[in-house]
Batch of 3 targets.
Target 1
Amino acid sequence: MQPDSTDPQSDPTDALSAVPAAGARRATPVTGHLRFYYGPMDCGKSTLALQVDHNHARQGRVGVLLVRMDRSGRPQISSRIGITRPAVEVSAAADLRGLVRARWAAGQRVDYLIVDEAQFLTPAQVDQLAELADDYQVDVYCFGIATDFQGRLFPGASRLVELADELRPVQVDVLCWCGLPARFNARVVAGQVVREGDTVLVADTADTADTETGQSTTEGDEIVSGSGTVGATVRYQVLCRRHFRLGDLGTTSGVQGQLAFA
Ligand SMILES: [Zn+2]
């Protein structure tokens, strides 16, 4: 909190500050902020999303949890360490401003949004989140994977990099088989790293038939029914940049990324 310039107790050196005096600042609307926490799969993003929600809720703030497609296939944010919270499933066509306005119209508060699997948002939805922050003072916390199996930004992640006030790498190191930090999610088919194919695969798994499934939602193997690789078993493995580049899965191919707390 900046001291009020009319306060006789205020520091006179404030006059040199680049921050406008309180009177001038009244003309500048308060805005919410848009943050993007990103990291490779298995780095603990969903756990952090639930922790951020808990911290705000404890302060008496009211938030809405959104998810584009959780690994569980249900409308909830579920972390790998077992904590789960109900969430609103967001379709590609959903207008996030409308979702928040509907809550307000029903007399509910919305102080903040938690968005998990934010890489699957459409760029237009990220624009809507920025508008909610700027014009409606809603704080938005997005969590997601930055890059796809080709090492390129997901459309939603790309727009978040462009618009977010803050970009925060999630500070849990996921390790490549060689021990270096793993920043890339390689798609592995029949023991080989593949670099071609759909960004988001259509999976045909037991309880989520005909459901869009992205790489972060993959729990173990999935059967691809997408273009060109019908019937092949696909999995994802985290790799460091060098081994992602070389397509080198190491001698213990099949071992998923291991967690180490930084
Ligand atoms: Zn490596």
Target 2
Amino acid sequence: MEWRRNVWFQTNQKSLERRKEPGSLKEVTKETKQKSSPTNPFSFLEFSTVASQQPAFIAPSPDHSPPPQLPESLFPAAFFFSETSHKMEESIPFIIDLEKISEEKECKKLREACERWGCFRIINHSIPLTLMAEMKSVIGALLELPMEIKKRNTEVIAGSGYMAPSKVNPFYEALGLYDLGSSQAVHNFCSQLDASPHQRQIMEAYGKAIHDLAVKIGQKMAESLGILGADFVDWPCQFRINKYNFTPEAVGSLGVQLHTDSGFLTILQDDENVGGLEVMDNNSGSFLPIPPLPGSLLGNLGDIARVWSNGRFCNVKHRVQCHEASTRFSIATFMLASRKGNVEAPAELVDHDQPRLYQPFIYEDYRKLRVSNEMHTGEALELLRIA
Ligand SMILES: O=C(O)CCC(=O)C(=O)O
């Protein structure tokens, strides 16, 4: 354990030094502020910055052992405060330690994160660090394949296959599959891309581990609202691997536009070196950068989480900004909605004081509603609102 702590402290020092350099996140944030103009749609937004240093790379153990159990005090990066107010009471209770999730305090923290932000970091999640690192290297190789091979990755549902760089997102491309819980779907994806036996093995192991994790976190989110026995095992998961080809010209522009995820819960392995993800604070409309926290994952709540919780949980608006000319990768697992029947809040979450907010609907219909109306930030929910 000692050597891991040493790696952490040494690299963390470097990270602190880097933060002071021109071009660091803080500097770029300032620059973005200065550059904003009446023609910039985001010019009214106020940026906040990270209060303290981010932990650095934690070397993976060679034996697929569980992630190191670092105490929360070693993860100060998860606490933010507003650059203008500097009030620590605005900090986000943001890190969820899955090893402690059966404790009341941690479960309450999960509920608060879901209600206030719709977003939280996950530590001690039990996905081996080596598997995460190997998966990153597999997706790097798959996204390097020639275009004609990547184009074989066709859609099963809208948006589930290959996405080439486009006019809207010129620096972004992605490969994907529907659905991760199906070994046949994973097999088909690997075959489309001529994956090697090793790449298949990693995809299968990662797919199973991350699917199980999404199910577990879904259950804990439900428990945090007092719903026991909610079962997410059969909820389909869309899977997407993202690459951001950030060139020097891309600096200052968006890698992915502002959006909410349409499903219930997204588990994101964001790039451990290259930041850029920002979430919107629904209270103020300002953006918070989410700096990398190596070895952790991120939980993002989508539109279905808002409906299922009868308005208690927040669907987080987020986007990816290019801050540096560097390739960024991320791996997203979207747990969508129940395969059977309607999307609706369980009866336990509906009563006289909190009447049902949304009419029950089929998830696929909701997805089409979003696409056909070009409503990418959850506005389509308003079309289904009944209270
Ligand atoms: O790359 C990221 O960090 C975010 C990706 C994302 O928002 C998405 O895939 O929906």
Target 3
Amino acid sequence: MQHFALLTNHRIAYNTASFFFATETYKIVKFISELLKLACHFPLAIVVLKGIDYICANNICKLKITKMKADKIIKNAKIYTADKNNLQATALVVKDGKFVYVGDEAGLSAFEGEVTDLGGKFIMPGIIDSHVHVTTSIGFAYMDPGEYIACSSKKEALDFMAGEIKKNPGLKRYRFILERKYLNGDDIVKEDLDAICPDAELLILEGEGHSVWVNSKILDRHGITDDTPDRVPELSYYVRKNGHVTGNAFESSGWHMLFDDLTVTDEQIDAELMRWIDYSVKTGVTAVFDAGFPEGEELHERIYKRLRELDKQGKLPVYIDGSIALTNPKKMREVVENVKRYQREMNTEHLNVHTFKVFMDGTLRIETAAQVTPYVDTNKKGATTFNKEEVAEVMKLLNEEGLDFHAHTVGEASSRAVLDGVELARKELGDEFRVRVTCAHLEIQDDADIDRFAKLGVTANYTPWWHSGCTGGNPYEIWRSLLGEKRANKMYRSKTMWKTGANVTFSSDNIVYGDFKTWNPFLGMEIGMTRFVNEKSNAPEIARVVAEYPSPNEKMSIEEMIQGYTINGAKQLGIEACKGSIEAGKDADFLVFDNDLLTAQHTGFSYNKPSEVYICGKKMN
Ligand SMILES: [Zn+2]
């Protein structure tokens, strides 16, 4: 440790200097900064230190400053800090896992240690993915979703399944994946499935993951009859024909059937978690928001216990902001109590649970996303899990408990219900309102609500790799048929939202680990900037689209993408005091690239990858 050394025998100076004596140089820098009422303004403090140094060198006062020993000194870099007060820098210094200096090279004279000349390489903060499903992905990793049915009609789908069942006799359950669009408006009912699979269970997961078709054996297993009430009519419900359930279940009414026969060992959980951690670290994702495991509470809790254990063993470098997901409005208080329990039992250095997550609505394709203006083909509007008064009640409860709120909001009416609820709660609580509120997905929003996010302090979270239309092929045609041309032209309005001054954050919203292609934040950045997935994109085949998605005015810049993936994400998670930007005093989470991301080609941007990743100052790759 290096200290100020006292060379004067003046008693008052001695007393002052003895404070300095036991203090590391960076603390002195901070102390002087505070004296200047400019806490954390290290460059200015260094100027003051240099002044003191000059005074000492010229014998004006016999106080000598020695340099602070740093763990890492980087110079000659192109640093995009994401710190609005100091966006670009060329040098940084790390000590004890924190940045202690960020600025130009002149400021480096206050530090000593090995200096790395990066030769102009690009540096940005560690990436924050503000909405993913760490635990759901474990469920999907060990739940074989079954054969994908490539077909063009209901008959072809049924024939394919019948053939597969015949080829593999004696199984307890058969599983398939089917995209609803291939049914061309036709539907599958339990009688169809019973006919091809009378003796075993049969479950088909819809390609988007928001609905299932099951045969009578599975309905019986779960005790679902014509009298079973719907959880939230028009959102989470059993499709009925003439009062009889058809075996088609929407949203969370079907999710519990997906994992009901899943058995996973702790070793399997650890293996997948380690694979995900390894991927995240190599890709530069240093923090995430885990958006919960709907209808998978038991496995969710087991996985958090494994994460807690891995963190204790020093194997969890990625910071996970955790949550518990609510799908059934009747369980509101129970979920709040559980978030509090998780806080007490699960929280470690890198796992922090403080958020109540709610599925406010569903998805566009099955028209469970709640709308202000009805779907044009059916005139349906969908429904929300909570109305605005109920949202306000949830907010007040969370405020009391010191917890935060994160909502799945795809349609216009669901983000509106959250905004209205926040407005009501704010009216009542005034400055006491402390809940961090996030609306995620925001595929479509009503014009009247766009500027309310900034006004009400609600974070707008987008999943930019969906901004080519969220589905492969010609998504514009699909959305136009459901929403009409005018509204289809106004989807994924991240730039319009950005311009209102709202906190805009970005995420991948993945629920399956697989080959991690769609977890790649650089794919999100590419599509956020281009609104297109073409052959030059590092994207799954199934995501390719025929043309750029409108409107070109919604294309983001690279700087906006980086801010949304770093500092803004930190604000959403409530960790902006220690993460999200390259700033003195914050955790030294940063990425080094051989090429300059600010000037990189937008098409093919998804192939970018950091050459070096640092978390809390430690080189991870
Ligand atoms: Zn999600």
